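Q: Predict the bound structure with iron/sulfur cluster.
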Amino acid sequence: MGLDTEDLSKSFALPTRMETFMAWGRKNSLWPMPYGTACCGIELMSVMGPKYDLARFGAEVVRFSPRQADLLLVAGTITEKMAPVIVQIYEQMLEPKYVLSMGACASSGGFYRAYHVLQGVDKILPVDVYVPGCPPTPEAVLDGVMALQKMIEDVRPRPWKERWTRPSFLAGE
Ligand code: SF4
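A: Predicted complex:
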């Protein structure tokens, strides 16, 4: 009996389908942890409310414990002093975990060109999605969440995540 390539392809199809199935589940059940520090944090609240309704995307179960969250929503100015705290929170989160940077301050320091302000949270965390604006509109945040969902669904490689290690300047704290 010859080699049945159709059967062979079916036997290899299962892991792929399982991966796709898991990605679908992850995409539709993100558990966000908000890290709001400034005005963007206030804007983020409206995304959770009934008008913009983040629940439509399966991400309404906001958690304030990193152990129960897989999406860190960084919304607002991040100072150098906060860096060890936010890194510790990130390290305590479940894998696979994601980071969304909301607004100019979180993404680049915004207009705070000061010694004590981190010039972008990606200096200390592997950011998956940047949402521009000051503050970003709720629609832009939803767009960012949808972009993240697409990334999860497509099981895209995340080299920035693979390369991430605890920042060396926090090693001694
Ligand atoms: S980006 Fe603008 S709205 Fe958001 S925290 Fe900074 S100053 Fe406030």
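A: Residues 22 and 153 are 9 Å apart (CA to CA).
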